[in-house]
Amino acid sequence: MKLPALTLLLLVVAAGPAAAAPEDLANEVSAEVMSPYCDGVTLHDCPSRAALELRDRIEGWARDGWSKSQIMAELEREFGPGIHATPQDKEGVAAWVLPAAALLVGVAVAAALAMRWTRRRGAEQPEPVDPSDHARVERELAALREETP
Amino acid sequence: MDIVAALGRPAVVVATGFAALTAALFAFGTARARYDLLVAGRRASIATAGFVAVAAVALSAALFAHDFSYEYVANYSSRSLTGPYTFSALWGGMEGSLLFWTLLLAVFAAASLRSATTKGMSPRLVGAAGAVLAGLTLFFLVLLVIPADPFVRLSPAPADGSGLNPLLQSPGMLIHPPLLYTGFVGFSIPFAFAVGALVMKRLEDVWFTSTRRWTLLAWSALSIGIVLGGAWAYTELGWGGYWAWDPVENASFLPWLTATAYLHSVVIQEKRRMFKIWNISLILITYMLAVFGTFLTRSGILSSIHTFTEGPIGKWFLPFLAAMLLGGVALVMWRLDSLKSENRFDAVISRETAFLANNVLFVVAAFTVLWGTIYPIVAEALWGTRLSVGPPFFNRVFVPIALALLLLAGVGPLISWRSMRARALGRVSTGPALVAVVLVVVLAIAGIRSWGALIAFGLCAFTAASIVTEFVRGGRVYRKREKVSWIPAVGRTLVRNRRRYGGYVVHLGIVLIVLGVAGGAFRTERDAHLSQGESFRVGDYRLVYEDLNESRNDEKQIAITSIGVFRDGERVTTMRPQRNLHFAQEQWQSEIAIRTTPIEDLYVVTTTIDPDGAASIRAFVNPLTWWIWAGAFVMAAGMAIILTGRVAAPVLERKKARVGEAIPVSR
Questions:
Q1: Which domains does chain A have, with CATH numbers?
Q2: What is the separation of C-alpha B331 from the centre of its chain, rounded to a whole number of angstroms?
Q3: Residues B219, B501: Cα–Cα separation, whole Å
Q4: Residue B81, SS3 per DSSP
């Protein structure tokens, strides 16, 4: 299994990201900022004429060679920090940290429970099973699994 | 005589009285073991449902009669509204949707109490659940009597109504809200029986085995409702997507996530007598999230494109939610000793551990979506700053969890119950893993450059191969045992263990949906402002703005743009997106044109039309979107297979009932 995994990794790394066309960069930016004209909707998804004009302006900046961060900075200067569709700065840290923390805690608790429960179970078994018996049981279980849909 | 006035509000008031009576009869009957009161309570619950139905019929009659002396009718319908959409106005506004919710709740309550009784469940457990259901119904009826009365009169009555929001006048909207409500309200049944089981200390399996079909029905309705909502957004809103992590969408997704966790973990309780606290907590949380979602979307606390139904009911929901949350926590703490697991894990590598991991991921996913949804309010409360939490946040935090869940859906069926050796797991996983690796390598060589898409496609292949392996294993047994060919053998595998294999079919549907979603990584879109005869390119297509046809009827002014679609110089088709002005609402709306194939959708929307006929056209090429809807059909088929299976009756409870505890079904 190691060789295919390595091959895959090499292929994926070699593929690398493609350079974005101005239209694609404009679409990418407009999907990452909220619309100043439609409440709770990204600029990309906002159907208003004003949003259409702002998307055109962003595309114009992209054609002029502006980078994504330059466009984002210009939008923030014009519309304020609330334009970002993802929480930013210190007020936004908790938005990112808590889901990650919840995942870590969840995985840690589940792992600890599984280990504890299986250890207890192990302690309840006083004698080790004979390897030949174990092999026979494994064989029979495998056969049983085969026959049980 | 004004029949609606005579029947509408009076029926709501009488139903409120009956709900209060039902709750009292069930509560006293359960506390004092008075079975005559329990029988009366069940009859009162039927009467409640009957009167709520009368109120719903009255409001529907007012809608169909265009009786604009009712504020609700004037606000959500108009003379030009056609038949089915006139009916859908019943749930098009806040008051009507609450009436519809209450109708479903009252009917489900009466039906579930009857079916629980006929299944021989302990009468006092049924009584306790009945009291909870009546209490929930009473809450919603009080809303209809005081802050959200759908029968408020207007004087003088306007000549015509404002009409239903044009975006809601779509076939999907005839089915999508009722399915979501069926899902939300359906979870009240397992919730009520779980609370009843906690109160009565009847924490054997009966509360969930008896309500399993309700849980499955609610989950299935919610699943299909969510997908239909996505289909509606895709075909009506004109931004080329189907899911925007809007608070309304999140509100339906939250209970779906916890309910899905519950449907998996309850299997562990059935098979191993484990996870009892977890399961009962999950079902309590699921219903609370369903109500919380209603609070979020109806209170106006969050703003979204859906908040056309903002209203004054938030302050009623908050104490109701707080009471459910505190009551639920108190009940679980009270019965903690009776909820201990009767078994332990045998090994770390086992089906049980896979289910545990699945549950952790589902609950973390639910927390993540909830946190992102309420974070703007939290940030505003803490720092006074109104932050935005949009789709990029949700995509970044949710997608990795979803991919891990997809991996588990592939690994789960391959792992044995109780214990499995790592080597054995490696052996059974080799086939599906090879399929996945080969696919990913081929795609990478073919030029796919998106990491996320490659991982998603690989996991789809792995999980699909794992499911196919399971069907092949099952089919092989029937082929050998019953000497039949492959197709009937696989058919028998499916039919004779509907719950397990129906579940695999649902997983296969999820795989197809993920495939369609992953295709979004290759979406291409272009905007253009064109005069007639001009063209622009999107993906491999050249779109030519060929013609504009304008007309009008009583309802709207219609502008149809004809867009010629060419590929390699050949005309592929002509698409006709529209831009319409609805007079009643003074609202412009785009009708989207979609050319759909399993490979890609060409999606064209006319966003503006100038007086000189020049038009702004937006076009998207959405690869693989078709598979999302195909996956939903496969999921629905899986759900139908599971729902048509036999549900094991609670044997212990049936025996107890036989010795003299049962309530007669009718007397």
A1: 18-83 (1.10.8), 89-147 (no CATH)
A2: 27
A3: 17
A4: coil
11-50 in chain A: CB under 8 A from chain B: 11-12, 15-18, 23-24, 27, 31-32, 34, 38-42, 44-47, 49
> Residue with structure tokens 């970044």?
B396
B331-389 per-position pLDDT tens digit:
999 998 888 877 777 788 888 889 999 999 999 999 999 999 999 888 888 888 778 89
Alpha carbons B297 and B250: distance in angstroms, whole number:
10
Ranges of each domain in chain B: 1-169, 395-521+631-643, 524-626
Best residue in B236, B246, B254, B388 to probe A by mutation, most A CBs within 10 Å?
B388
Cβ <8 Å between B241 and A115: no
pLDDT in tens, B592-628: 999 999 999 999 999 999 999 999 999 999 999 999 9
Residues of A in contact with B275 (CB under 8 A): none
Coil, strand or helix at B408: helix
Span A24-60, pLDDT tens digits? 899 999 999 999 998 878 999 888 889 989 999 999 9
CB of A85 within 8 Å of a chain B CB? The answer is yes
Mention every residue, 6+ apart, whose C-beta is less than 8 A from residue B536.
Answer: B526, B528, B530, B542, B543, B617, B619
Rounded distance, CA B41 to CA B660, Å?
A: 19
- What dihedral do alpha carbons B216, B222, B228, B233 form, nearest 10°? -160
Of A18, A52, A84, the CB nearest to B616: A52
Peptide bond between residue B156 and the one before it cis (omega within 30 degrees of 0): yes
Q: Which residues of chain B neighbour A107 with C-beta distances below 8 Å?
A: 360
Q: Give how far A146 is from chain B: nearest CA, Å.
A: 7
Element housing B108 (H / E): helix B94-118
B528-561 pLDDT tens trace: 999 999 999 999 999 999 999 999 988 889 999 9
The answer to whether the complex's ipTM is over 0.85 is no
